[in-house]
Amino acid sequence: MTPAAPMLATRALTAHYGDFQALWGIDFEIAAGEVVAIIGANGAGKSTFLRALTGLNRAAPEMVRFEDAPIGGAAPHRVVRMGIAMVPEGRRLFPSLSVEENLLLGGEVGRDGPWNLEAVYALFPVLRERRRQPATTLSGGQQQIVAIGRALMGNPRLLLCDELSLGLAPVVVQEIYATMPRILSSGCAVVIVEQDIGQALRVADRVYCFQEGRVSLSGRPGDLTREHVKQAYFGI
Amino acid sequence: MQWLDAILQGILLGGLYSLFATGLSLAFGVMRFANIAHGDLIVLAAYLGLVVTSSLGLHPLTAALLIVPLMGVLGYVAQRGLFDRVVGGDVVSMLLLTFGLSVVLQNGLQGLFSADGRRLQTGDLVTASVPLPGDMAIGVFPLLVLALAVGAIVLLEWVFARTSTGRAFRATSDDREVAQLMGLDIRHVYGIAMAVSFALCGLAGILLGIGTTFDPSMGPTRLLFAFESVIIGGLGSLWGTLAGGMILGVAQTIGFRISPGWGLLAGHLAFLVVLAVRPQGLFPRTRDR
Amino acid sequence: MASIPVAPLPAAPGAGFHVVRTTRTSRVTFAVTVALVALMASMPWWADPSTTSLVIEFMYYLAIAQMWNLLAGYGGMVSIGQQAYIGIGAYVLVWVALQTGMHPLLSIPLAALVSALVAWPVSKLLFRLPGAYFSVGAWVVAEVFRLLFANYTPLGGGTGTSITASLAEMDEWWREAALLWCALALAVASMLGVYLLLRSRTGLALTAIRDSETASESMGVRVPRVKLLVYVAAAAGAGMTGALIYLTKLRVSPDAAFSVEWSALAIFIVVIGGIGTIEGPIVGAIVYFLLRWALADYGTAYMVALGLLAMGIMLFARRGVWGWVHARTGLELFPLRRRLVLEPAQGGKAKWRPLPSSAQDTKTP
């Protein structure tokens, strides 16, 4: 396990959609500067987990602790102010806003830190040229980096990335993940939820595998075999 | 000439109608909130104007400087205290809650002020006119109303496009969930939007009270005019609502010239025709999704 | 809520199961209803005219409410414009009474036909409007009819007209009795109609549409067709009721016949009683009449109280009075769900298990 105290930890986290229970007691940790990947099949509960972290899904206060304070069930806008930001699955940029306006909105939360409009444009120069365009007129890959930039504008301590590679060409995905070190160097920790297992294992310091709402496997990529992962992924 | 005059009057009337409609359009645009009590709020503002002008001896337009912000505050409180429970929920609850409110407002006002018609006195303002060639004239007051309507739209468009509040409105309207993930307190954003909507009702109410004799039962028809203006103009476009209001106004005034009983009917028929022929309205806001 | 366990079928030969709809409560209710209706139908022989009038009024309020409930509670179409058809029904009566030689009572079925015919093209227009705007659009349509009839003098114009003359030949007693029986028939038919519709395949489709239009469409439910059917049925019902109402009032004017007050009435009764349930409008009508009787002297305060009550229910008790009762006790007078009854292999009492929540559960908003 990690030597430093975890930045974020969940204990026996459960989550429901109405009568349907999606998560059955997730124990999870991430420390500052780490990249932790969550893999699992569709419906395994990965996105639900991120939603519970950000407050979009109700959780009991003690189930989620961030920087040593219970935040389970806190309203999403408060969670963001505390320093957890999300890059949502499917980008979900605001169609009525331009690229720059989307970024500015990300900065609404008003936290101090290295990320601002200039810094984001420096990281992703292609956005500067397209700053006034309506955000959803960009290509899929460009929209993804707008979404990342938007989340960074909140100067988060913890960045949650939900399915960055979804619907994007491999080459584009590589480029996006290539920027990960720059993001980490600013002091963030990053959780990535990924369908692309290879990509996840390449990038992550540690990995969790979810299966039907439970953690079926966790460890360092180097310590896990393909067989291990396959079994945990499919639950066989 | 008679027809030209009617058209002119109708266009000016459109200014008032668009003021009725802008608040409705805003609430629906940001929150998908259809407020059946909208017209009654306008009438409420007229009565508030009555109270303020008679107790403080102010000119109605000066009173407006008090009423408009007061309505704004009322709107914020109403949203967070009352409407919040039904926003984002199902249509039925929202409609029935505001319908109930409409009944309460109409009957409450009637109980307090009786059904007699009232007017906010402004002396010469409503009779003053500017002569035009061809033996026609434009009333100064209707011109003022149109100017205020246009001004309100210009201001709102500026807020939407250039301020962080406007961005918040647009973002919340696009995707309420992700807006929360960006740190926006949705309840507060909705509160502000409703405050603006109520404030516009405040302005519209004062102007209504100056220009016409008003009574507690007038609310529903104002709602219908506002609603028709929005639909004729096209959902999502404030300038479209102005155009819609003008078309409605012109239809009504022309209808009225043909025969007094046909005024309102012509307006409603114009609305139905637009609905039949171009249901998205004349100037709908299209958007990339 | 865990899924309801369904007992496994007994393995012994000869054992089986059957599906029933009725429960003991519903059978009792049915018997009581039949008795009550028979009692009320006999009123011309023993009751005094003012009581009979009250019963007639109750029945037509109930009919209006059931129709509105069908449209809004089950069909998901909240209309503030059903008064269009009440008015059309009233004017069918006026036309029959003033311009034809037919017996005025015939205007009732005729009103259903005319209303249905009008409702069809109107729905084509109104269905273009999304959810909330449909409601106000329906109101505009009602206003158009009001203004049209106000401008059409052959049927009375703006000041209205009286149809008393056409009923002059009818014996007083027979007239009151006929109106009472029509009112009873209308109320019973409206409830029966709604009940049977909901138990049918169309009813299943309706509930599915209410839950999710898109999902229903993808499953092959012809959404526009079902909505049209419901809208037209509700219009026909409202039309018949309109004709009946003005047969009792005898004086028709556009402002009264097309008044939004009819919608307000329907809304209050249904909301207070319990939207989306068949029992709700009955409870709501009772509450409404009690309130009216208790607060009759208080004018506007009474309407304010009604409005506040409706708002309160929407905020705190969305299911209305009946919905609250149903939630507490599971009581259902007019059951729509099917139940599985297991028969044991040899003798013994049949036990039943409810099927897991079927789509026919009336899901109140």
Key attributes of the depicted protein:
heterotrimer, A: alpha/beta, Rossmann fold, 10 helices, C: 365 residues, mainly alpha, ABC transporter involved in vitamin B12 uptake, BtuC, three-stranded antiparallel beta sheet, two-stranded antiparallel ribbon, 15 helices
Structural overview:
The complex is a heterotrimer of chains A (236), B (289) and C (365). By secondary structure, chain A is of the alpha/beta class. Chain A contains ten helices and ten strands. In chain A, strands 6-7-8-3-9-10 form a six-stranded mixed sheet, sandwiched between helices. Chain A has a four-stranded antiparallel sheet with strand order 2-1-4-5, with helices on one face. In chain B, strands 1-2 form a two-stranded antiparallel sheet. Chain B is mainly α and 289 residues long. In chain B, helix 2 crosses helix 8 (186-211), helix 9 (219-233) packs across helix 10 and helix 10 packs across helix 11 (263-277). Chain B has helices at 2-31, 38-56, 60-81, 91-113, 140-162, 164-174, 176-181, 186-211, 219-233, 238-258, 263-277; strands at 129-132, 136-139. Helices cover 73% and strands 3% of the residues of chain B. Chain B is built from eleven helices and two strands, in the order ααααββααααααα. Chain C has 365 residues and is mainly α. Chain C has a single domain (22-337), classed as ABC transporter involved in vitamin B12 uptake, BtuC, CATH 1.10.3470. Chain C is built from 15 helices and five strands. In chain C, helix 3 runs antiparallel to helix 10 (223-249), helix 7 packs antiparallel against helix 10 (223-249) and helix 12 packs parallel to helix 15. The longest helix of chain C is centred in the middle third of the chain and has 28 residues, at 172-199. At the B-C interface, helix 4, helix 9 and helix 11 of B face helix 6, helix 12 and helix 14 of C.
